[in-house]
User: What shape does this take?
Amino acid sequence: MVLDVVKNSMDHPTTDMIYTRVSEILPNISMGTVYRNLAQLVAANEIMQIGMPSGADRYDWRIESHAHFVCTDCNTVIDIANINIDDIKRINPGVKDCDIDTVNLVAYGKCPKCKQAKA
Amino acid sequence: MVLDVVKNSMDHPTTDMIYTRVSEILPNISMGTVYRNLAQLVAANEIMQIGMPSGADRYDWRIESHAHFVCTDCNTVIDIANINIDDIKRINPGVKDCDIDTVNLVAYGKCPKCKQAKA
DNA sequence: GTATCTGCAAAGAATTTGCAATCCT
DNA sequence: AGGATTGCAAATTCTTTGCAGATAC
Assistant: This one.
């Protein structure tokens, strides 16, 4: 059920949002269960966890390595291509000999809608 | 004093580490004060805050935009060059029209020392 | 029937805040 | 005196966990 909700959510939901949505069908579910199921699904590589430098983590049904843009006005999250690990190594001799496993990239700014709303 | 500690710390300290170091000279300082001073210094662009997707934020005296590598074994933080915003836009037509203000990039993996320690 | 999963509530980590007391000028 | 800064403790936010009861095979 938790997996279903994530797979059908296009808005990179937070745990809270997932909890609310699952609650509509399973009214007695608890936050603990949502967290536990999300952790399992992430471990099983069924969904991706997006660690946010500030605020609650979000979840994504797209599991291929990718990054995100977050609008600082409306909080919309847009998927973007991740940076290539070889590119990082190429421009950073200091980490040339490191084993880089994952890259967490979050870009912040204003989406086109909020950009023009301000103007 | 807080600024001094950050400027003299080469290890990208967390608030806790900064608190401990300042405490050695000002034993009565409180966490609240450390947080408030750090927030002020970040706002004044005197230091940089490194938002970590999980765990406590870290602080850096290098204020030019840059990214970080974190060793998942020993927690060492290594400065790396940040990705260019134009590069992100070039490979991501979906965010071409977004105003990107900041890019938070954290790479995780094993540093050379921990890599060979394991082997 | 035993291993797993759940709800609940409490604990935990990281950070923020209200407020009275203190400091500086 | 008057405004800014502090220490302290409580509050917030997000997440994890212990445990007794419910579920699943």
